[in-house]
Design brief:
Elements (H helix, E strand, L loop, with lengths): L1 H9 L2 E6 L3 E3 L3 E11 L4 E2 L8 E3 L2 E6 L3 E6 L2 E11 L4 E5 L3 E4 L2 E4 L3 E6 L24 H30 L8 E4 L3 H14 L8 H20 L8 H8 L5 H20 L5 H18 L7 E4 L5 H39 L1
Parallel strand pairs: 2-12
Antiparallel strand pairs: 1-3, 3-8, 4-10, 5-6, 6-8, 7-8, 9-12, 10-11, 13-14
Helix pairs in contact: 2-8, 3-4, 3-7, 4-6, 4-7, 5-6, 6-7
Length: 347
Amino acid sequence: MLCFNLTAKAQVTVEQMVDSIGILIGEQAHLSLKVTFPQGSRLQWPNLKERQYVTPGVEIVDIAKPDTIGKEGNSLQVERVYTITSFDERLYAIPALTVKVNGKPYQGANSALKVITVSVDTLHPNQFYPPKDVQDNPFKWSEWAPFFWLSILIVVLGLAGGYLYIRLRENKPIITKIRIVRHVPPHQRALNAIEKIKADHMQTSENQKAYYTKLTNTLRMYIQERFNFNAMEMTSDQIIEHLQQVGDQKMIDELRELFQTADLVKFAKYSTLLNENDLNLVNAVNFIDQTKQEGQNVEERIVPQLSDDEIRERHSRLTIKTLLYGIGILMGALLIYVIYNIYMLLG
């Protein structure tokens, strides 16, 4: 049992070394630990951290991860590198670092590190020159070519957009004006005319011929528009004959009496009484009220029809506008892309 432990202990070796014998102040060196130990054993590295001194004056800058560098039989060789530096001129003795294998400590040999300063020739100060200025990077056409051609494309797109804009400005828009026409229903127009007759007191005037002419012409126009036959060119009997097909007999009789009275006044110089004029005026209003049509449209929306040439011009303007918007968006995106990449190249 004792022999087995000695054999296991003999298999653990620790090598400690520094890759540089001497460094200038502020330079860095690498302190490496190589540990050879039986496979399956538990290895514990020295408890060191960054910004910690491995010895007074020598500071640890970085600690690399362990790296397996060899394997032979049942033994493994693992290396860990510590980056160290110093800012004081002297010769440092770096003590042997302790590693533990299965809880037992093992050490390598001590190391040395000499730190020296830069010798300054104070007798010949002219030999020192200021730092050189930043040098420009060499020009490479392969890096700039894509953005050069993209810039050319932006210019071409701009010229095309300008041409389309001029075309759009010269191609006047097709403007269609929609007219709203207000229609007065026939019965309303006839009633308005009768109200004017009453306002002018024509039924009480001495000129009965003018009164009956105005009244019958109003009725004829209403009948023509309401019943769709040419009442303005017909005689009174012809009008009554046409109306007998659409109206009741009492209404027709009252209208016949009105027309007969009007014909007597106009052609036979017949004189009527005042109450007879009023009665005929009332009969005219009653006829209109009984035959009027309700629910007629009083407004008409009139949309002018475009010619084939105007339709083609409107489509042409729409196409040009769409192309202009597309070119503008594409130019903006390309310009941003080119400026960004040129900025990155110059930076």
